[in-house]
Amino acid sequence: MAEKHHDEGGSNRECHPNSSDVISGNFLKGLRVLVFDKDQDYLLELEKYLKDFLYEVTCCNDEERAMYLLRNHRDRFDIALIEVQKTDADKLRLLSGIRSEMDIPIIIMSKDDSLLSMANWMSHGACDYLIKPLRTEDLRFLFKHLAKKIQGNRIMEDPDEQVKDPDEQVKEDDHELDRDQASTAKKRRVVWDDGLHKKFIDAVEYLGLAKAVPKKILEIMNVENITRENVASHLQKYRISIKDKKNNQIKTDEMNQSLLIPQEGRMYVREEVPNFYEGRNVQFPTHHINNIPHPSVQQHTMNPNHLTRHLMPPPGHHHDGVSIAVSGRNLVMTHQHHLHHQVSEFNAEETLAYNNFNEDGPTNLASLFTQNSEEVSLFHYPQQSGNGVCFTIPNNPQNPAMAPTTIPNNHHLSSSLEVMNVHQNAPPSILHFTSFPSTSYTHTSYLNQQENGGFNFNSGYFVSNKFEPKHEGGR
DNA sequence: AAACAAATAT
DNA sequence: GATATTTGTT
């Protein structure tokens, strides 16, 4: 295994003739290497070899210090040689972290020659994996990991700068360097954790959003190691996030305000209706519609004139009473079968038709807007499928029109709507049931209403606004 | 030079 | 996905 690896390393070298050419003269001079090994003796040996290649070497046998140097002085190193004992998860994470924050190639040295170990480290961002004991060749060609950058950043810009006085080695942590440009290390990736972000926010608020520009924010934040660019980038993101928030707020506001509630005690008739709603969605006032014949019966009845004759439930499948509560957000049907109460939500798919009667016969859908008691009948609308509440069109009872339960203003007209438009000018989306939560409202039960004077299954249908929020579920 | 937005890269 | 970097504009 070890041998295989080394062989590959050998062939690799052959693969970089260009780098070698460029670099062969003085390329290695001053390559700044950070070396960590627990074994002090081995460390010294490494150092000796590396210095033979004219590398700048910083040795360290304290792991924490090595990490510290890497993190906080990355501009001082071009590459790091890190010895590891075994692949423990903490170190792997550390490696990943370092890799994400900086651009220093990290080469792992280990006695573990298993493929598993190698793969593990490599997959966590190691640039190479050298098996101990190292060969001098391994060290000589460390630069291969940097060939590109060396060409791009260092050699071409300022080759002489590479030659450094060894005495200028990093010895004190606080020694400032100004080699950002020449360094192969990328700028530290700023992690805007809560603390840093707070400082940012404080600065922005102090300055006022309008006057908060990167430079000033940076001054006020008074944080080391971050650049104006960092702040600019963060500010850009921050502004976008503010804009997004605003948009969302506006959107939800619009959603919340979009339901237009008809004026109480008013009738909206015919042409008034489009004027009234002006393309907005409408939330109905609360109604109770009681004594609804069972849908299975209603299906027989297309002609509302026949409706009253067919109201009786089919044999063995009748209800003693059915009532429906309608609000903008709720449509609940209560069946009363003998003495058992059942509550069921209307399926949004279910198509119902409103047919409005009084002594003069069918009136108009305006009664749906009134808070007053009205006679209303419901029946199944058998022809059209899809979501909708149907109502008959005044003076044209043969042709019930259909209003989908939930149609936003901008909704593309469906075929069912076209039916409505053909027959009458009643606008779409005038009936707007956004949802039917089963517990948000319930309504006065059939029995209660019966006590209140009652009504007769065959004599018409009662709409009231006795709609009380409560949570018993009508049981 | 600084700020910025947008696009693009890491 | 977050941050950095680049680009083009003011």
Automatic annotation (TrEMBL):
The keyword Plastid does not apply. Signal peptide: none annotated. This is Two-component response regulator-like APRR4. GO terms for biological process: phosphorelay signal transduction system. Keywords: Nucleus, Transcription, Transcription regulation, Two-component regulatory system. InterPro entries: ARR-like (IPR045279), CheY-like_superfamily (IPR011006), Homeodomain-like_sf (IPR009057), Myb_dom_plants (IPR006447), Sig_transdc_resp-reg_receiver (IPR001789). SMART domains: REC. Residues 155-181 have a biased composition (Basic and acidic residues). Gene3D superfamilies: 3.40.50.2300, Homeodomain-like (1.10.10.60). It comes from Cardamine amara subsp. amara.
